[in-house]
Each structure stands twice: as C-alpha cells, then as structure tokens.
Amino acid sequence: MKTIIANWKMNVGVRESVALARATLLTLRGRKQIPELVICPPLVALSETRKVVAHSAVSLGAQNVFWKDAGAFTGEVSGRMLTELGVSHVIIGHSERRAHLGETDAMVNLKVLHALEVGLIPIVCVGETRDQRNGGRALEVVREQVLAAFKSARLRSNDRLYVAYEPVWAIGTGEACTVDNALETHAMIRDMLAKQFSGDQLKVLYGGSVDGENAYGFLREREVDGVLVGGASVKINQFKDVVAAASEVLEAQHD
After folding, report:
1. Residue 250 lies in a domain
2. Is-catalytic flag, 254?
3. pLDDT digits (tens, 9 = 90+) for 195-237
4. Rounded CA gap, 86 and 63, in Å?
5. Which residue out of 89, 94, 114, 186 is catalytically annotated?
6. Choosing from 96, 103, 166, 186, which is the catalytic residue?
7. Structure pTM?
8. What is the CATH number of the domain that holds 112?
9. 40 within domain boundaries
C-alpha cells in the first residue's frame, strides 16, 4: 500500500479546508486501487474537515502536537484533544517548525513519545539543509535526527509510525531530491529502525516539492512507501495527479 499525506500548512482557512477536503475525496472516485490518504488541515479547520471525511477512505491528521496531556501551555494542543477531534495522524518535527519555531530534536522525541502514548500515528520529518548536503553530511544529519526522534520509543502490536524524509533545501523550492538520493536515505532509515520496529509498523515516505510531475518517479520505487505533499496538496489539479500516480503504481503491483 502506498501512502499520500497532504500537509496544507497555514494556507487555507475553515471554509477553504472544507472545500478542499470535498475536492480531495473526489480524486479517489472511480479508481480501482486507491492509496492510503491522510489530509492535515490547520488546527482551526480540523473539526469541520472531519465532518467531510467521516466514513470515507480519507484519514485526518494534525500538523503539530504538544507533549503533555494538559496544563498551563497557552496555545498548545495535546494528543488527547486531537483524538477527540477524530485525528489519527500527526506531523512532528517538520523542518519549518525546526527552523522558524525553535523545535529541537529533544522536543521532537517528547512529541513522538506522547503521540504513541495516546494512540496517534506520528509522521516524523527528517532532512538536511543544502549546506549540510554540500558538505557531505546529509546522511549523518538524518541519522542523528532519526536516532534522537525515536529514543526510548516502543510500539505496541497495533501501533504504526511514518518517517518522512524531506530534504530541507527541496521544500517549497520546486527542486525535488533525485530518486537515487532518496532511495539511499530511505534504505538507511529503514536499516536504522529495523531492530526497534517491525517492517509492518514502519513506513518511510519522501517529501520535498512533490507534485504531479515527479510523484510517479518516487512512488514506483519499492523503497518509497509514499509521499508527503505540501504546496501541491492545496492545488487540487496537481494533487489529483499525485493520487493518480499512486493508483497507477498500485494497479501495476496488483496485476
């Protein structure tokens, strides 16, 4: 099964999110094989978006979570609060939060542990900057982020988690990573976590300027379990092409 996660970031309000959710559902209509699809609206739109995707094949994700159940943490939201809204997945450690909001590897780890504790599926983002890649440190940086994120993490039999490799220099730039570089990093991530988690519990996704033109190139690779889509996920014609690419891959595998 291939997975597509749509990160709408801070691009749409409540009314726009409802319309986009309805349009996203239509991208699945009439397909023989459909990917696992998770949409991540802004926090303020989760409740109304849930009404649209309820009883459908689309799951609801959040873009962030705090690591405490409750307390004097103004502006934050706990995993318990998210599950009450019908959220099943949560993005953790996105590079934009690391860069602009000071999110550290230690904070990412606390969020991962909390998400697993309350039954949310973490989507943990890792990736290097352009300077780090040019300096030959890409794999080292990702390795450190993965080790830190999953420190002391344990999964119950039904738990799942996703790691999204998103090279920072590719996010929102239109310049996607090469497939070969993505495959190398995915293989390293999978090997690192093989002893800690079973293969059925872990999915490794690619993100970073994924669109309708390059999605198939990543999704056709067995090492790539899916894609995390940012800007293209709020442009429904582009997103429809991403869904079509995933369906095409699934149909070929099914045959």
Report:
1. no
2. no
3. 898 878 999 999 988 999 999 999 999 999 999 999 999 999 9
4. 14
5. 94
6. 166
7. 0.95
8. 3.20.20.70
9. yes
